[in-house]
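Work package 3, deliverable 3.1, input record:
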Amino acid sequence: MSAIVSARAGIVVTGTEVLTGRVADANGPYLADRLLELGVELSHITLCGDRPADIEAQLRFLADQDLDLVITSGGLGPTADDMTVEVVARFCGRDLVLDPGLEAKIGDIVTGLMARFPGVDAEAVLAANRKQALIPAGAVILDPVGTAPGVVVEGHPTVVVLPGPPRELQPMWQAAVATDALQAAIAGRTPYRQETVRMFGLPESGLAETLRDAEGSVAGFDRLEITTCLRRGELEIVTRFEPQDAAAYTALLDALRARHDREIFSTDGALIDDQIADLLRGRRIATAESCTAGLLAARLTERPGSSAYVAGGVVAYANAAKTDLLGVDATLIDQHGAVSEPVAEAMAHGALTRFDADTAIAITGVAGPGGGTEGKPVGTVCFSVALTDGSDPGATVTRTTTLPGNRSDVRERSTTVAMHLLRRALTGHR
Amino acid sequence: MSAIVSARAGIVVTGTEVLTGRVADANGPYLADRLLELGVELSHITLCGDRPADIEAQLRFLADQDLDLVITSGGLGPTADDMTVEVVARFCGRDLVLDPGLEAKIGDIVTGLMARFPGVDAEAVLAANRKQALIPAGAVILDPVGTAPGVVVEGHPTVVVLPGPPRELQPMWQAAVATDALQAAIAGRTPYRQETVRMFGLPESGLAETLRDAEGSVAGFDRLEITTCLRRGELEIVTRFEPQDAAAYTALLDALRARHDREIFSTDGALIDDQIADLLRGRRIATAESCTAGLLAARLTERPGSSAYVAGGVVAYANAAKTDLLGVDATLIDQHGAVSEPVAEAMAHGALTRFDADTAIAITGVAGPGGGTEGKPVGTVCFSVALTDGSDPGATVTRTTTLPGNRSDVRERSTTVAMHLLRRALTGHR
């Protein structure tokens, strides 16, 4: 690893509901994105419950990692189990002091809120909220967005204390970034660039081989931080580098293209769903689904505005539905089976006709766990794309593939394969 | 807190894509639930990237917290940045050794996979996967679900190494729990019972009030650990207690039933999806979906064997599809709008007829963000269930509701409302 000098950060997320997974943590991912934009390297995220000893242990761990910045989220409320500020003060060796100006500010907010809840004991609420005006001596105060203020405590690491609710944390983080204390902590940051390449149809080990070879052939390869990830049947390659190493990234991209030109479908961050939405503009698509039973139609309509190009679809689960709703010839099913290329083709043509569409895609397969045969094991899925273009009577692309995994994986992956087959048909790469 | 001596655990989630938030971590929440069921207390979850030094620092931190069990997820793939097994071996003071039996097993899996990728260099792939057959000396091997094996390394803490993809991690965790090594590590656990009540149609605040009152009226209430969670539009009340406190739980359940009998739909862990699958046995259902565009059909067919009762469905996204495919009278759409109870009813009857079904459900709504009007704001969704029973000409239940959230929330929640409306229609509770 090269000696890149960059500011480094860690995040402590507190709260039993987040630790136990009852509430998904949105603050870690939000702060991770913001740190990336700032060129600050995020090394660790830790989650714990509301126990002071656990919070303090995590702060100590992060300090031992020689980080410049530690951000905490949660534990700033008025109740007894909200202890983060007290723990941070002790950790930073500061006394906890009452800030009278802050107490008045919180009092105003709380009085305003209480007007909406007439039954509540005002004195008790104000006393509970006084606790929130206690801050580590000398800390920079971040004004409340809800009722809880945050603080920035300078040191090594500098600690930023933020509230748990994302709608309070996010604006308060922006305020924290503007403070001199935080800017001083991250002064050693490195501006990074990040680029993403997406591929389809290549196994992860095939990419690993290419990257091993690139290590020898790409000048500056060791200054690129490359992570690869298999997601929804696609490979995602994210590369992070300093701006002066852009040439090394270009060389890496060339090396990837030289071997996997057909598999690379995106180098600009666009998802297959973005590309399909663009390609369908001005067209009219219909779906005919058996094993995926509506998942592809649902995926095509995830985006607002998709009604401009999605006419609809048929979920033809039973064979009778394939013949009655899509006009598939029953003898075709008898001869070839419901999971077969001729039936997929007939389904696509049926969808084209019934919905008066110019683009149709059909999926029929064995999602499992039952229904597999020797010739057509579980995971066998047939796809067909049919297009009409003005006078063109209807070009068809049909494929059969065997997908791994359980019932849910086969169904989910089938929609991804369908999206890519659609892309190839619409861009003329068959 | 009483002095319960319980086994304690920590989780290390590795992977740059998870640390940076590009992929949401599903393994921490999954393992948190499983540990809860086992009566093992989860103290810390830590996330880091693929750097060996960071993984090792987190293992060291968790070991310092005197935990009995540490579970890692991720970093078991064939690429060079997958280092978890190597790091764990070093951390546990064990050599890394090649297991020939495991190597043969992985070889078989990989050879099978490669049949689908004819262009790939088989030798290189097998070499990359050989790395996955290296395990800490003396560790218990967990057979691969994908291509990567896991391991259990006994010690204090005992370390369980699992793969990152949830569909691989989940079955492998079940295998890990069955090992003597893991059972020995968590021998100090407290046996708990856990019961779940599910409700639909009650606001969270209504439940909070009932629970406050139960605090006074239910003997032993303070020995019940109750957590409530709003999920997919349903309320889930999970209660954890030691076996000797079963009477207190029974009293709590009585208190809930006394006030919310209509809203409680499950007290035995069954999901609405399980109940609908049971209710549809012997019937034949068809769907007619507009705003949900296939999500309900996909949900009804998630279970193996659903082809016994799901005939199919129409995704009638465009108005023309509603008239052409479902026979909805165009003047009905003109008069009442596509999002209206008369159109929902006509869609349901159309689905009954076209699929020759005895049960049909239709959904038409405004998913947003556009398309809302003053009378029918975003989130307005109309549902209709139509049933025929032998001579019965077709009983219909139709409802309109306004659902909160963004486009994706409205679509997802609509499927839940539809499932509950279907349940009420099929059980005769209208």
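The two ends of chain B are 46 Å apart (CA to CA).
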